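Project standup — Tuesday

K.O.: blocked on the structure for the chain from last sprint. Re-posting the sequence here as requested.
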Amino acid sequence: MSGFESSKLNQLILALKSLPGIGAKSAQRIAFHLIQNNKPGMHKLATALQDAADQIGSCQQCRMLTENDLCNFCQDTSREANQICIVESPVDVLAIESSGSYRGQYFVLMGKLSPIDGVGPSELGFDLLEPLIAKGTLNEMIIATGMTVEGDATAHLLSLLARKHDLKASRLAFGLPAGSELEYADSNTLSRALTGRNDIPMDI
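H.V.: unblocked you, prediction finished:
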């Protein structure tokens, strides 16, 4: 990056490069396009980013991204109150919603169990999740973590929490290949996975 005379341009490219899926060449192309062809768009993007950074936080109940204390899903009284679907990220919520096969509650872990990275139950919001379960209004926990080693470990920990409160636990299975991440599954696959979810035995 040091070949560019403008330090501001370097900063822009480095900022773009930090985004997932964008390498050095893509960051350069985007930066050049914005500066050369879309200055008004740059200002709109900058404003949107600033507003998002200042105003978007986590739902106090399910940890979904929202501008309010409670997200739209938690405020929606028409949703089923006896089911809760546990996902790794907000993107997973949108993926499941697009399947049209689920109308219950959500809880977003904002990650998955990874002791080597310092991610344990407290980082995954178990201190918020357990009181929701302890209320006694739920009859099923749908575990929708990815089919990865970390996702499996997280699912196991969640199933233990469900068992502690005598709550039925099931996990998405049919149609989701091993090693896959939920956000990359198409809506038809997710719909089949929700319909064909498997119960997790209470004695594991």
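K.O.: great, moving the ticket to review. Residues 39-55 form the longest helix (17 residues). The mean pLDDT is 88.
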